[in-house]
Request: fold
Amino acid sequence: MEKIKVLVVDDSSFVRKALTRIFDADPDIEVAGTAGSGKEAIEKVIALDPDVITLDINMPGMDGIETLRIIMQSHPVPVLMLSQFTKQGAELTLRALELGAVDFVDKSTTGMMDFLDLAREITTKVKSISGSKPVAIGKHAEPLSSIQGRGLIDVVAIGTSTGGPLALQMILPKFSKEINFGLLVVQHMPKGFTAPLAHRLDTICDIKVREAEDGDIVMPGVSLIAPAGLHMTVKKIQTQDYGLQKRISLSAEPSEELHRPSVDVLFNSVAKSYGKRSIGVILTGMGSDGVKGLGAMKDAGAVTIAQDEATSAIFGMPRVAIENGAVDKALPLTSVAEEILKIA
Reply:
Protein backbone atom coordinates (compact mmCIF):
# COMPACT_ATOMS: atom_id res chain seq x y z
CA MET A 1 0.00 0.00 0.00
CA GLU A 2 1.31 3.44 -0.91
CA LYS A 3 1.98 5.83 1.92
CA ILE A 4 -0.29 8.82 2.46
CA LYS A 5 1.56 11.95 1.33
CA VAL A 6 1.02 14.89 3.67
CA LEU A 7 1.83 18.56 3.17
CA VAL A 8 2.34 20.30 6.53
CA VAL A 9 1.46 24.01 6.49
CA ASP A 10 2.17 26.18 9.54
CA ASP A 11 4.05 29.44 10.09
CA SER A 12 5.62 28.01 13.27
CA SER A 13 8.82 26.05 12.65
CA PHE A 14 8.20 24.30 15.99
CA VAL A 15 4.82 23.02 14.83
CA ARG A 16 6.19 21.95 11.45
CA LYS A 17 8.94 19.96 13.17
CA ALA A 18 6.52 18.44 15.69
CA LEU A 19 4.10 17.30 12.99
CA THR A 20 6.92 15.97 10.82
CA ARG A 21 8.16 13.95 13.78
CA ILE A 22 4.67 12.53 14.37
CA PHE A 23 4.17 11.55 10.72
CA ASP A 24 7.68 10.12 10.33
CA ALA A 25 6.89 7.71 13.16
CA ASP A 26 3.86 6.28 11.31
CA PRO A 27 4.65 3.65 8.65
CA ASP A 28 1.58 4.59 6.60
CA ILE A 29 2.33 8.32 6.29
CA GLU A 30 5.13 10.34 4.73
CA VAL A 31 5.72 14.08 4.76
CA ALA A 32 5.77 15.19 1.14
CA GLY A 33 6.82 18.68 2.16
CA THR A 34 6.28 21.60 4.52
CA ALA A 35 5.27 25.21 4.00
CA GLY A 36 5.59 28.21 6.29
CA SER A 37 3.07 30.49 4.58
CA GLY A 38 -0.14 30.40 2.60
CA LYS A 39 1.60 31.46 -0.61
CA GLU A 40 4.20 28.70 -0.26
CA ALA A 41 1.44 26.19 0.53
CA ILE A 42 -0.46 26.96 -2.68
CA GLU A 43 2.72 26.54 -4.72
CA LYS A 44 3.60 23.22 -3.06
CA VAL A 45 0.07 21.80 -3.38
CA ILE A 46 0.41 22.09 -7.15
CA ALA A 47 4.04 20.87 -7.23
CA LEU A 48 3.69 17.95 -4.77
CA ASP A 49 0.04 16.88 -5.24
CA PRO A 50 -0.32 15.65 -1.62
CA ASP A 51 -3.07 13.29 -0.45
CA VAL A 52 -3.78 15.38 2.66
CA ILE A 53 -2.88 18.86 3.91
CA THR A 54 -2.59 19.89 7.55
CA LEU A 55 -3.29 23.61 7.61
CA ASP A 56 -2.92 26.15 10.40
CA ILE A 57 -5.78 28.64 10.62
CA ASN A 58 -3.81 31.55 12.09
CA MET A 59 -0.92 32.58 9.85
CA PRO A 60 0.43 36.05 9.08
CA GLY A 61 -0.21 37.47 5.62
CA MET A 62 -2.43 35.00 3.81
CA ASP A 63 -4.18 33.20 6.66
CA GLY A 64 -5.43 29.61 6.68
CA ILE A 65 -8.96 30.55 5.63
CA GLU A 66 -7.85 32.39 2.50
CA THR A 67 -5.28 29.69 1.72
CA LEU A 68 -7.97 27.03 2.04
CA ARG A 69 -10.35 28.97 -0.22
CA ILE A 70 -7.75 29.18 -2.98
CA ILE A 71 -6.75 25.52 -2.63
CA MET A 72 -10.38 24.39 -2.85
CA GLN A 73 -10.88 26.46 -6.00
CA SER A 74 -7.68 25.47 -7.78
CA HIS A 75 -6.57 22.05 -6.49
CA PRO A 76 -9.06 20.45 -4.04
CA VAL A 77 -7.34 18.20 -1.49
CA PRO A 78 -8.61 16.78 1.83
CA VAL A 79 -7.59 19.30 4.49
CA LEU A 80 -7.19 18.83 8.25
CA MET A 81 -7.30 22.22 9.97
CA LEU A 82 -5.22 22.96 13.06
CA SER A 83 -7.32 25.20 15.28
CA GLN A 84 -7.16 26.65 18.77
CA PHE A 85 -9.58 26.43 21.67
CA THR A 86 -10.78 30.03 21.59
CA LYS A 87 -14.07 31.64 20.56
CA GLN A 88 -12.44 33.17 17.50
CA GLY A 89 -10.63 29.92 16.75
CA ALA A 90 -13.90 27.97 16.89
CA GLU A 91 -15.67 30.43 14.58
CA LEU A 92 -12.82 30.32 12.06
CA THR A 93 -12.80 26.53 12.22
CA LEU A 94 -16.50 26.40 11.36
CA ARG A 95 -15.84 28.76 8.45
CA ALA A 96 -13.05 26.44 7.27
CA LEU A 97 -15.41 23.45 7.37
CA GLU A 98 -17.91 25.43 5.27
CA LEU A 99 -15.17 26.11 2.71
CA GLY A 100 -14.36 22.42 2.35
CA ALA A 101 -11.96 21.37 5.13
CA VAL A 102 -12.90 17.83 6.16
CA ASP A 103 -11.93 17.90 9.85
CA PHE A 104 -9.89 19.72 12.46
CA VAL A 105 -7.66 19.18 15.49
CA ASP A 106 -7.42 21.50 18.48
CA LYS A 107 -3.73 22.39 18.75
CA SER A 108 -3.95 24.47 21.91
CA THR A 109 -0.64 23.12 23.15
CA THR A 110 2.46 24.52 24.77
CA GLY A 111 5.29 22.10 24.04
CA MET A 112 6.57 19.10 22.10
CA MET A 113 5.15 16.60 24.62
CA ASP A 114 1.68 18.14 24.26
CA PHE A 115 1.91 17.70 20.50
CA LEU A 116 3.06 14.13 20.83
CA ASP A 117 0.01 13.46 23.00
CA LEU A 118 -2.07 14.50 19.98
CA ALA A 119 -0.17 12.12 17.70
CA ARG A 120 -2.80 9.38 17.65
CA GLU A 121 -5.66 11.79 16.96
CA ILE A 122 -3.76 13.57 14.19
CA THR A 123 -2.58 10.42 12.41
CA THR A 124 -5.99 8.76 12.73
CA LYS A 125 -7.71 11.76 11.19
CA VAL A 126 -5.14 12.07 8.40
CA LYS A 127 -5.74 8.42 7.48
CA SER A 128 -9.51 8.74 7.68
CA ILE A 129 -9.80 11.82 5.44
CA SER A 130 -7.28 10.61 2.85
CA GLY A 131 -9.23 9.84 -0.30
CA SER A 132 -12.30 11.81 0.77
CA LYS A 133 -13.86 14.37 -1.55
CA PRO A 134 -13.84 17.93 -0.20
CA VAL A 135 -17.25 19.62 -0.42
CA ALA A 136 -17.89 23.32 0.13
CA ILE A 137 -21.20 24.99 0.94
CA GLY A 138 -22.49 27.35 -1.71
CA LYS A 139 -25.75 29.13 -1.00
CA HIS A 140 -27.45 27.94 2.18
CA ALA A 141 -30.65 25.95 1.71
CA GLU A 142 -34.01 27.62 2.08
CA PRO A 143 -36.87 26.14 4.14
CA LEU A 144 -39.03 23.71 2.19
CA SER A 145 -42.02 26.09 2.15
CA SER A 146 -43.86 25.88 5.49
CA ILE A 147 -44.28 22.10 5.60
CA GLN A 148 -45.14 21.09 9.15
CA GLY A 149 -45.32 17.33 8.85
CA ARG A 150 -48.37 15.10 9.40
CA GLY A 151 -48.18 14.98 13.18
CA LEU A 152 -46.84 11.43 13.29
CA ILE A 153 -43.41 12.28 14.71
CA ASP A 154 -42.47 14.17 17.88
CA VAL A 155 -38.68 14.18 17.58
CA VAL A 156 -35.84 13.60 15.11
CA ALA A 157 -32.54 12.42 16.62
CA ILE A 158 -29.39 13.04 14.57
CA GLY A 159 -25.90 11.68 15.20
CA THR A 160 -22.75 12.64 13.32
CA SER A 161 -18.99 13.13 13.57
CA THR A 162 -16.41 14.01 10.89
CA GLY A 163 -18.11 16.06 8.18
CA GLY A 164 -21.10 16.67 10.44
CA PRO A 165 -21.05 20.49 10.65
CA LEU A 166 -21.27 20.69 6.85
CA ALA A 167 -24.01 18.04 6.75
CA LEU A 168 -26.04 19.83 9.42
CA GLN A 169 -25.76 23.08 7.47
CA MET A 170 -27.28 21.31 4.49
CA ILE A 171 -30.16 19.72 6.44
CA LEU A 172 -31.35 21.99 9.25
CA PRO A 173 -31.97 25.16 7.13
CA LYS A 174 -34.53 23.18 5.13
CA PHE A 175 -36.90 22.98 8.11
CA SER A 176 -39.48 25.70 8.61
CA LYS A 177 -40.08 27.02 12.12
CA GLU A 178 -43.62 25.67 11.66
CA ILE A 179 -42.53 22.01 11.89
CA ASN A 180 -44.36 19.99 14.52
CA PHE A 181 -41.35 18.05 15.81
CA GLY A 182 -38.17 18.85 17.73
CA LEU A 183 -34.63 17.88 16.78
CA LEU A 184 -31.87 16.52 19.02
CA VAL A 185 -28.31 16.46 17.68
CA VAL A 186 -25.09 14.82 18.82
CA GLN A 187 -22.03 16.13 16.96
CA HIS A 188 -18.61 14.84 18.06
CA MET A 189 -16.56 17.98 18.79
CA PRO A 190 -14.07 19.19 21.41
CA LYS A 191 -15.22 21.45 24.22
CA GLY A 192 -15.65 25.03 23.13
CA PHE A 193 -16.88 24.22 19.62
CA THR A 194 -20.50 23.07 20.02
CA ALA A 195 -21.86 26.43 21.23
CA PRO A 196 -20.37 28.35 18.25
CA LEU A 197 -21.69 25.60 15.95
CA ALA A 198 -25.18 26.00 17.39
CA HIS A 199 -24.96 29.80 17.05
CA ARG A 200 -23.77 29.51 13.45
CA LEU A 201 -26.61 27.14 12.56
CA ASP A 202 -29.14 29.39 14.30
CA THR A 203 -28.14 32.34 12.10
CA ILE A 204 -28.86 30.40 8.89
CA CYS A 205 -31.95 28.43 9.99
CA ASP A 206 -35.63 29.27 10.23
CA ILE A 207 -35.93 26.95 13.24
CA LYS A 208 -34.27 27.82 16.54
CA VAL A 209 -30.91 26.11 17.09
CA ARG A 210 -28.96 26.26 20.34
CA GLU A 211 -26.70 24.26 22.61
CA ALA A 212 -28.78 22.14 24.99
CA GLU A 213 -29.07 22.94 28.69
CA ASP A 214 -30.07 20.57 31.45
CA GLY A 215 -33.84 20.67 31.92
CA ASP A 216 -34.67 22.00 28.44
CA ILE A 217 -38.10 20.99 27.16
CA VAL A 218 -38.07 19.18 23.81
CA MET A 219 -40.18 21.50 21.64
CA PRO A 220 -41.35 21.62 18.01
CA GLY A 221 -39.28 23.88 15.80
CA VAL A 222 -36.25 23.80 18.10
CA SER A 223 -33.00 21.90 17.52
CA LEU A 224 -30.86 21.21 20.59
CA ILE A 225 -27.20 20.30 20.16
CA ALA A 226 -25.53 18.26 22.90
CA PRO A 227 -22.67 20.20 24.54
CA ALA A 228 -19.22 18.69 24.14
CA GLY A 229 -18.23 16.63 27.17
CA LEU A 230 -21.77 15.70 28.23
CA HIS A 231 -24.20 12.97 27.18
CA MET A 232 -27.70 14.10 26.23
CA THR A 233 -30.76 12.01 27.09
CA VAL A 234 -34.52 12.59 27.29
CA LYS A 235 -36.44 12.03 30.50
CA LYS A 236 -40.19 12.02 31.06
CA ILE A 237 -41.10 14.47 33.84
CA GLN A 238 -44.57 14.71 35.40
CA THR A 239 -45.31 18.35 36.21
CA GLN A 240 -48.18 19.74 38.23
CA ASP A 241 -49.02 22.55 35.81
CA TYR A 242 -48.23 21.04 32.41
CA GLY A 243 -48.62 17.30 32.89
CA LEU A 244 -46.08 14.90 31.34
CA GLN A 245 -43.15 16.67 29.69
CA LYS A 246 -40.05 15.40 27.95
CA ARG A 247 -36.98 17.24 29.17
CA ILE A 248 -33.28 17.11 28.40
CA SER A 249 -30.87 15.60 30.90
CA LEU A 250 -27.13 16.28 30.57
CA SER A 251 -24.59 14.09 32.34
CA ALA A 252 -20.99 12.90 32.21
CA GLU A 253 -22.28 9.36 32.81
CA PRO A 254 -21.95 6.74 31.45
CA SER A 255 -18.22 7.48 31.60
CA GLU A 256 -17.16 4.31 29.78
CA GLU A 257 -18.46 5.54 26.40
CA LEU A 258 -15.72 6.29 23.86
CA HIS A 259 -17.41 9.54 22.90
CA ARG A 260 -19.02 12.14 25.11
CA PRO A 261 -21.57 13.07 23.96
CA SER A 262 -22.41 9.66 22.54
CA VAL A 263 -24.82 9.09 19.67
CA ASP A 264 -25.68 5.68 21.13
CA VAL A 265 -26.68 7.22 24.47
CA LEU A 266 -29.00 9.74 22.77
CA PHE A 267 -30.54 7.19 20.40
CA ASN A 268 -31.17 4.65 23.19
CA SER A 269 -32.88 7.34 25.24
CA VAL A 270 -35.06 8.46 22.32
CA ALA A 271 -36.04 4.85 21.63
CA LYS A 272 -37.34 4.52 25.20
CA SER A 273 -39.01 7.94 25.39
CA TYR A 274 -40.53 8.23 21.92
CA GLY A 275 -40.59 4.79 20.25
CA LYS A 276 -42.38 4.91 16.89
CA ARG A 277 -42.98 8.66 17.18
CA SER A 278 -39.32 9.34 16.36
CA ILE A 279 -36.89 9.27 13.46
CA GLY A 280 -33.23 8.35 13.84
CA VAL A 281 -30.66 9.79 11.43
CA ILE A 282 -27.00 8.82 11.28
CA LEU A 283 -24.73 11.00 9.19
CA THR A 284 -21.10 11.09 8.08
CA GLY A 285 -18.43 10.20 10.62
CA MET A 286 -15.63 7.88 11.71
CA GLY A 287 -16.16 4.79 13.83
CA SER A 288 -19.34 3.05 14.90
CA ASP A 289 -20.99 5.33 17.49
CA GLY A 290 -24.75 5.22 17.01
CA VAL A 291 -25.17 1.76 15.50
CA LYS A 292 -26.51 0.14 18.69
CA GLY A 293 -28.77 3.05 19.53
CA LEU A 294 -30.12 3.28 15.97
CA GLY A 295 -30.90 -0.43 16.15
CA ALA A 296 -32.78 0.19 19.41
CA MET A 297 -34.77 2.97 17.76
CA LYS A 298 -35.67 0.72 14.84
CA ASP A 299 -36.72 -2.07 17.20
CA ALA A 300 -38.92 0.45 19.03
CA GLY A 301 -40.73 1.31 15.78
CA ALA A 302 -38.83 4.41 14.69
CA VAL A 303 -37.90 5.03 11.07
CA THR A 304 -34.11 5.06 10.66
CA ILE A 305 -32.11 6.87 7.99
CA ALA A 306 -28.41 6.86 7.06
CA GLN A 307 -26.47 9.20 4.82
CA ASP A 308 -25.28 7.30 1.74
CA GLU A 309 -21.67 6.63 0.83
CA ALA A 310 -21.54 8.98 -2.16
CA THR A 311 -22.33 12.06 -0.06
CA SER A 312 -20.54 11.12 3.19
CA ALA A 313 -17.23 12.80 3.95
CA ILE A 314 -16.38 9.67 5.97
CA PHE A 315 -18.59 6.63 5.38
CA GLY A 316 -17.87 5.05 8.75
CA MET A 317 -20.81 5.42 11.13
CA PRO A 318 -23.43 5.09 8.36
CA ARG A 319 -21.69 2.06 6.85
CA VAL A 320 -21.57 0.16 10.14
CA ALA A 321 -25.21 0.99 10.85
CA ILE A 322 -26.27 -0.25 7.41
CA GLU A 323 -24.20 -3.43 7.70
CA ASN A 324 -25.79 -4.16 11.07
CA GLY A 325 -29.33 -3.88 9.71
CA ALA A 326 -30.15 -0.77 11.76
CA VAL A 327 -31.09 1.39 8.75
CA ASP A 328 -34.39 1.54 6.88
CA LYS A 329 -33.20 3.92 4.17
CA ALA A 330 -29.79 5.15 2.96
CA LEU A 331 -30.16 8.52 1.24
CA PRO A 332 -28.07 11.28 -0.32
CA LEU A 333 -27.55 14.18 2.07
CA THR A 334 -29.67 16.42 -0.17
CA SER A 335 -32.70 14.13 0.31
CA VAL A 336 -32.58 13.62 4.09
CA ALA A 337 -34.67 16.66 5.12
CA GLU A 338 -37.28 15.93 2.46
CA GLU A 339 -37.60 12.34 3.65
CA ILE A 340 -37.97 13.43 7.27
CA LEU A 341 -40.81 15.79 6.32
CA LYS A 342 -42.46 13.09 4.25
CA ILE A 343 -42.47 10.71 7.24
CA ALA A 344 -43.28 13.25 9.96
